Amino acid sequence: MTNILTKDQVNHFLTARKKAANLTATGVLLCILSAAPLLALISFARLGSSTPSVDTMTALGVIILLIIVATGVAFFIASNRYIKSYEKLEYENWEHSWIVWPISGIAYGIIEKLFSLKNNDIAPD
After folding, report:
1. Domain that holds residue 69
2. Does some domain include residue 1?
3. CA-to-CA distance for 85 and 100, rounded, in angstroms?
4. Which of 24, 37, 22, 23 minimizes the C-alpha distance to 68?
5. Per the domain annotation, does 41 fall within a domain?
6. How many domains does the chain have?
7. 98: pLDDT strictly greater than 80
8. pLDDT tier at 115 (50, 70, 90 boundaries)?
9. I need a labelling partner for 74 at 20 to 30 A (CA). Which of 28, 91, 118, 123 fits?
């Protein structure tokens, strides 16, 4: 059974996908940059003698890293929230789509053989 989509449904779907993509990209950026404060704090601790110890700065850096990663994961969860309602619509009718590939392969073989016979060529096997 094929669903007919209205223009509003398509627009809402595209808007949700854009929001989800932006949220996912922000989450990835946060996860990638999460190590920067840790490295900066360790470097800062090694520069001067009046700074806190390397162990203290490492502990602080790890805490900041975990907070940033948790924020990134929150963005991933929010991204999933936008597209979850469209999941059924997006992946509907895929259980029967596999049949396209064997039919395409057989059709390609037949068409290729016909062209090779027309041109008196022998197609490589």
Report:
1. 7-92
2. no
3. 27
4. 37
5. yes
6. 2
7. no
8. confident
9. 91
- The reply to whether 23 falls in a domain is yes
- Do 119 and 77 lie in a common domain? no
Other beta carbons within 10 angstroms of residue 79's beta carbon come to: 21
User: Within this chain, do residues 80 and 108 fall inside the same structural domain, yes or no?
Assistant: no
Directed axis angle between helix 54-84 and helix 35-47, to 10°?
170
d(CA 39, CA 48): 15
- Here the tokens at position 120 are 């008196």
121: confidence class by pLDDT, cuts 50, 70, 90: low
User: Do 56 and 11 share a structural domain?
Assistant: yes
Q: Which residue, chain included where needed, has tokens 């989450």?
A: 27
Percent of the chain with pLDDT over 70: 84
pTM for this one? 0.63
